[in-house]
Specification:
Endonuclease, Chain A, 17% strand
Length: 230
């Protein structure tokens, strides 16, 4: 059992909980989530190890940590193979009124140095809160590890009273991005209905969410070997 060699202090309890969850997820073939739990659980176990004085317990902990590291490494290798074969699919289910799903928590792990372009399709970048959501996403790209040079936005044109607000808001964002060395390419279409983000390597289907409570939705993440351009 995951907790058989650990004590009852809060650090040990947290480690046991996370490792048990990792084992459950692995048994259900939910490998991306299992990998995250293994990594978190291993970090917690290392903290427990640092505070352990008993020699025998330390030895047992090291062995247990090594075993979980091997499991995590095997999962990582499997996921890397799936990504290379273009078969990677990760699904995140967001319950009604759930919080904690910021843009960073959803996308940060995919924004490495290989990402240089981002394609966004969203039919509703019109009103103030929608423009701010788009701005927050752009800020994340600019501040992250990725080296994004171009952002392509395909959205629908507001033909009503909000047309001027949409136009001026997007132009302000374009100018701000230009000051940070990023080009914003804008296109309009009345035919798009779904929301999608494509990175240089990944494709992420998403709905409108932020730090505020979310509407119930599902996020599907696919790995594409060749990302099409809009």
């Amino acid at each position: 059992m995951a907790g058989s060699l650990l004590g009852q202090d809060s650090g040990s309890t947290a480690a046991v909980t996370v490792i048990k969850r990792a084992l459950e997820l692995e048994s259900e073939s939910r490998y991306p989530q299992a990998l995250v739990c293994y990594q978190e659980g291993i970090d917690l176990l290392l903290q427990v190890l640092k505070g352990t004085k008993d020699v025998t317990r330390k030895s047992n902990l090291r062995k247990r940590i090594s075993d979980y590291m091997d499991r995590a490494e095997n999962i990582k290798k499997y996921l890397d193979q799936e990504k290379e074969a273009g078969k990677y699919h990760k699904q995140i289910k967001i319950e009604e009124n759930a919080t904690g799903f910021s843009y960073e928590s959803l996308f940060q792990e995919y924004l490495n140095e290989t990402v240089t372009e981002v394609w966004i399709e969203d039919p509703y970048i019109r009103h103030t809160h929608q423009l701010y959501n788009f701005l927050r996403f752009c800020e994340m790209l600019v501040k992250g590890q990725c080296k994004v040079k171009t952002i392509h936005l395909l959205t629908s044109l507001d033909e009503g009273s909000g047309k001027e607000q949409q136009s001026s808001g997007l132009e302000e964002i374009r100018e701000s991005l230009r000051n940070h060395g990023v080009q914003l390419e804008l296109e309009y279409s009345s035919l798009i209905h779904d929301r999608e983000i494509r990175l240089s390597r990944f494709s992420l289907g998403y709905c409108d969410f932020d730090l505020r409570p979310c509407h119930e939705t599902t996020v599907d993440i696919f790995h594409n070997k060749h990302t099409k351009k809009i």
